[in-house]
Amino acid sequence: MAQEQPCSGSVGIVQPSDYLFEEELPLDCGRSLKGVVIRYETYGKLSPNADNAVLVEHALSGDAHLAGYHSPEDKKPGWWDDMVGPGKPFDTNRLFIVCSNIIGGCSGSTGPRSIDPDTGRRYDMDFPIITIADMVRAQERLMRHLGIKKWFCVAGGSMGGMLALQWGVSYPEAVNGTIAIATTARVSSQGISFNWVSREAIMNDQHWLDGNYEEQPQRGLATARMLAHITYLSDESMNHKFGRALQESPASDYDFAFSKDFRIESYLAHQGSKFVERFDANSYLYITRAIDYFDLSDCAEGNLANALKPVAAPFLIVSFSSDWLFPAYQSKELVRALLDNGNDVTYCNIQSSYGHDAFLLETEALGSLISSYLTNLPWEPPE
Amino acid sequence: MAQEQPCSGSVGIVQPSDYLFEEELPLDCGRSLKGVVIRYETYGKLSPNADNAVLVEHALSGDAHLAGYHSPEDKKPGWWDDMVGPGKPFDTNRLFIVCSNIIGGCSGSTGPRSIDPDTGRRYDMDFPIITIADMVRAQERLMRHLGIKKWFCVAGGSMGGMLALQWGVSYPEAVNGTIAIATTARVSSQGISFNWVSREAIMNDQHWLDGNYEEQPQRGLATARMLAHITYLSDESMNHKFGRALQESPASDYDFAFSKDFRIESYLAHQGSKFVERFDANSYLYITRAIDYFDLSDCAEGNLANALKPVAAPFLIVSFSSDWLFPAYQSKELVRALLDNGNDVTYCNIQSSYGHDAFLLETEALGSLISSYLTNLPWEPPE
Fold first, then answer.
1. Is the pLDDT of residue A150 over 50?
2. Which of A168, A327, B3, B102 has the smallest number of CB atoms closer than 10 Å to its CB?
3. Measured between CB atoms, does B29 come within 8 Å of chain A?
4. Residue A32 belongs to what H/E stretch?
5. Residues A177 and A48 in one domain
């Protein structure tokens, strides 16, 4: 799918594809979805015996556009372009990389703003509550559609890490290796709380209209995003980058107003307004709920090691020292459970001041861990 | 003012008083306020030479009702009743304790919902932006009104600690000792950010009406409070108290809905709805802005030690190990500045899992520190 470009290291110009399911997709909530579409992109070439396919999972606000450019005029590459391409950690000279937009999303795959084939109208809040396992169930169909029986590796950061972990529990026979970065096996009470407050901000926007808006509830969605953004940074990185600096610099004094006075306020407002241009409010509600419901140990009455028992594959687990959204202790809990099960585990808590965002910023440290893991990962053919 | 009651340790039945300023109160923003009223309560007796007066400062959502009961039917005592009374750390057998509602507040003192004497209408958003120093300036008038030239001690936690610290910088000659608990000398970028998001939640409530509401913007204010409440707890205490427990217990499964499913969601919603019954949305806006603007070092071009130079009095500084709203490193910054200046400083970082809320919960550890500090604090009479 990717065309070769002269610029070294880039997968070049890429195009997304859509895969329409013929059969209904059953969901954890008991309902099912008809006419599901999955949008995806691929980079590199699938080997004749399909032993080099890697699925990369995106985070809450991500999409299928992992690497490369959609057109020669495109100024911004895919969201993990640093990591995916010829000679890069996810090396497209060797690997066939797949990235698909999750169901519930708003970037091509079926989500709450899609048309319900039964009614001919948008689902909006009639969309069923979906789970991380549902998202993985949809991806499993895509895997078969692509002629793949087993992923060489499934990888992801943040919510993407939850999907990567869920793959092992849902389809252990289809996973040869797992990379889970800045993530958790179960979302904490604090994580659930931030999501709750974010949804309140959206649902209390008068333009939300019980989800039946034509135009986005911009301010509510921006508020939700600004709150989330705080949890992606660290206290230390905020002090370092913004501190108490005022927007007007050199500043003589405070504005004595409620408008954006501090530089951090202006930064957050900018993040909020950029977000509403590219992301849908109802999708935000559904995806955060899926995150709340994520507990890998649910299938084993809360025992994480038992839940992971069927997964024989080696893991790479990475946390970041200043990540307080999915703190290192949560990765360590996962590592302990895997060690209890006798799995091969590579674990690193990368020292970084960037907070949760480190998983997108610490490309050098993370890249060498991923490179090394993927280079040394043995291939166990499917049964 | 307090009547004796048989129940040991209580200041008994107390009544608030109002003090109306005759003269305008000048403010940092350049404007001034006419007809300011300060609501306050006192406990114990002022000694003949006025050497036993202690000012206790309340936090963001506090009020003048520090201890005791307003009537025999009153079920709930003042907000720090554990700490204030005969034989308690703030010992009313020995000390004369004063607590006043801050200006900008909504519990008796002049605030945005007060009537502007110039227009005969509520200020609402025409209320001037006030600062922590303005709140202290108003309290200095109350001090003189009460016949006090110098506080034996000024004490407070959280925002109350900011006022206690500000007293030393604004009126060093009027402060004999300072107790600053779970607070900071300057609010961090992260603190400013949470306040920003909270105000967005309020101002985006369609019932806020640019501040001219007759009925509270309940949902926006509740959202702001829920967010703040998360920052008052610790990840650890939330995991311990709520974890991922569902509201229906024993729970068989998720609700697959956006309603309150987890116990923590129900708890937060309860905190939010209780709050809107007792606190005003516009006050919340003004007080959080005052907190944003708090930087004790502003008067000394950012040099905290220089700002504190005029304060000769001994300090008690207390932080809590799991407080991430005003983390221990912020108290330590303050301690270092005071040590550089040669001040007597008692500092303790109390080990606690309660997060910022520890300042209201760790009464035993905190009480013995305060007791010991107040018992040993020498009195330096005013010039």
1. yes
2. B3
3. yes
4. strand A32-33
5. yes
Helix (DSSP H) and strand (DSSP E) numbers for chain B? 11, 12
Residue B235 is nearest to which of A190, A233, A244, comparing CB atoms? A190
Catalytic residue among A10, A158, A319, A353: A158
pLDDT tens for residues B335-367?
A: 999 999 999 999 999 999 999 999 999 999 999
- Let me know if A323 is a catalytic residue: yes
Domain with residue A122: its CATH number is: 3.40.50.1820
Annotated active-site residue A158? The verdict is yes
**Paired tokens of B315:** 């300090």
Among the three residues A288, A306, A335, which one is the final residue of a domain in this structure?
Answer: A288
The chain A residue lying nearest B256, using CA atoms, is A129
Same domain, A201 and A156: no
Nearest partner of A371 among A346, A353, A354, judged by Cα = A346
pLDDT band at A8; cut points 50, 70, 90: very low
Report residue A142's pLDDT band, with 50, 70 and 90 as the boundaries. very high
Give the pLDDT score at B51. 98
CB A129 to CB B256 under 8 A? yes
A28 at B interface, C-beta within 8 A: yes
Q: A95 lies in a domain?
A: yes
CATH of the domain at A197: 1.10.1740.110
Nearest to B258 among A30, A190, A289 (CB): A289
Q: Which residues pair with B20 in a beta bridge?
A: B37
Q: Which of A190, A206, A235 sits opposite B188 (nearest CB)?
A: A235
Query: Is residue A381 domain-resident?
Result: no
Kindly state whether residues A274 and A357 are assigned to the same domain: no
**β-pair type (A178-181, A315-320):** parallel
Give the span between the Cα atoms of A5 and A13, in whole angstroms. 7
Q: In B, residues 349-368, which contact A (CB 8 Å cutoff)? A: none
Query: Whole-model pTM?
Result: 0.96
What tens digit of pLDDT does each residue of A89-102 get? 999 999 999 999 99
| pLDDT tens sequence across B3-40 | 444 344 899 999 999 999 999 999 999 999 999 999 99
Q: Is residue A11 part of a domain?
A: no
Q: How far is B227 from chain A (nearest CA, A)?
A: 6
Q: How high is the pLDDT of residue B332?
A: 98
Q: Do A164 and A307 share a domain, yes or no? A: yes
The count of C-alpha atoms lying within 13 angstroms of the C-alpha of B269, restricted to the half-sphere facing its C-beta, is 15
A16 close to A38: Cβ distance less than 8 angstroms: no
Q: Residue A258's closest chain B neighbor by CA?
A: B289
Q: Cα separation of A324 and A244, whole Å?
A: 21
Q: Check if A356 is active-site.
A: yes
In order of A8, A21, A224, the CA distances from B287 in angstroms are 55, 54, 22
Inter-chain touch A189–B262, beta carbons under 8 Å: yes
Instruction: Tell me the per-residue pLDDT of B140-158, one tens digit each, with 9 for 90 and over.
Output: 999 999 999 999 999 999 9
Say yes or no: A133 and A168 in one domain: yes
From chain B residues 302-331, the ones with a CB under 8 A of any chain A CB are: 324, 327
Give the position of tokens 């099960």: A341
Mutant choice from B196, B283, B299 vs A, greatest count of A C-beta within 10 A: B196
Q: Does residue A155 sit in the same domain as residue A21? A: yes
Q: How many CA atoms lie within 13 A of B346 on its CB side?
A: 18
Instruction: Kindly list the residues from chain A whose CB atom is less than 8 angstroms away from the CB atom of residue B189.
Output: 235, 238-239, 241-244, 262, 264
Q: Do residues A242 and A108 both lie within one domain?
A: no
Instruction: Inform me whether the C-beta atom of residue B243 falls under 8 Å from chain A C-beta atoms.
Output: yes
Number of domain units in chain B: 2
Same domain (yes/no): B179, B199: no
pLDDT band at B248 (very low <50, low <70, confident <90, very high): confident
Phi, psi of B72 (to 5 degrees): -65, -25
What is the residue-averaged pLDDT of chain B? Answer: 96
